[in-house]
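Posting this for the archive.
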Amino acid sequence: MRHTVLLLLLISLTSFNSNRTEDEQKIIQKCFDLKRVMIFFHEKQVIILDNGKVSSKIKLNKYGQQVLFMTENELREKNIKAFVVFHTLDIEKNLASVYFRLDSEGMGAEIKLKKQKSDWKVISEKVYEN
C-alpha cells in the first residue's frame, strides 16, 4: 500500500512537471512571437541565459532555428552579448506573468497571459526600450 501511494505521488509530480514545461514552452513562444518583441531580435540565433528561471528542456524556435540556452560561462567564453534574460516566469493556474530583458538592444518586456483551454492568450503587454 505504501509503495502504491509513493508511486502515485511520483506519477502526479511527473505529470505536473510535464504540464509546467509544456505551459512554459507555449508561453515563451507566444512572447517571442509578439510583433513588438520580434523587432528587437536582430540575431538569427536567439539565446536565453540559463539562469533557472525557465526550464532549459523546452523547445523553442525563432526564425527557423532552435532557441539555445547557455550559462553565463558559456556566453562569456563565446563572447556573446545578445541574449535574453528571464527575470520572472510565474504560472498560477490559468494566469502567467513574464518579465524578460534583451539588454543588448535595451529592451524589456512585461507580458501577462491567460490560459484558454490548452492555449495561452496574451492579455497585456508592455515592451519598452531604455
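The first helix runs from residue 2 to 32. The mean pLDDT is 87.
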